[in-house]
Structures are given as structure tokens and as C-alpha cells.
Amino acid sequence: MTFFIFLCLSAALLFWMFKMEPYRYQRTTRPVSIKKKLPRSLRILHLSDTHFSGINQPLTQFFDKLSQTEVDFIFLTGD
């Protein structure tokens, strides 16, 4: 029974890793406070962990939405 549970959990994890997570893109907006007063707020686009493999419809739609966003800086970071 334990082996069956382990096998089911492993299958669920593999399904998530290869079929769900690669197509899960999200955009989050967060205010950041700094000590120095600026004449206007800055807009920063931070892309992280960009492990893209090929082109897919959700990725294309995500970048289409991002391309309509006005930003001052773009930072690419990750592992």
C-alpha cells in the first residue's frame, strides 16, 4: 500500500512539473518604498526563472500583455 501511495504522489508531482507549472505565468504588482523622494514613480519589470522551452499559447499571451506595459527598467534574474 505504501508503494502505491508513493507511486501516485510521484505521478502527480511529475504531472505538475511537466504539464502544469511550465504554463503557469503570473504578473504581480508590488509597491516598493525607498528613502529618497523621486519626481515620479518608477515602473520596473522583473522577469525571474525564465526556463522557457519552445513557444506555447499561454506564453505568447503572457508576453503580449507584458508588451503593453510601460516600464522604465527590465531586470532578468533567476537561478
Concise structural overview:
This protein is α+β, with helices and mostly antiparallel strands and 79 residues long.
How is this fold's topology laid out?
Layout: H1 2-20, E1 44-48, H2 57-67, E2 73-77
Parallel strand pairs: 1-2
Note down, in words, how this protein is organized:
With 79 residues, this protein is an alpha+beta fold. A two-stranded parallel ribbon has the order 1-2. Helix 2 links the parallel strand 1 and strand 2 (73-77). It has 2 helices and 2 strands; from the N terminus they run H-E-H-E. Helix content is 38%, strand content 13%.
Helicity level: 25-40%
Order of helices and strands: HEHE
Oligomer: single chain
Largest sheet features: 2 strands, parallel
Low-confidence stretches: none
User: What's the helix count?
Assistant: 2
**Which word captures the global form?**
elongated
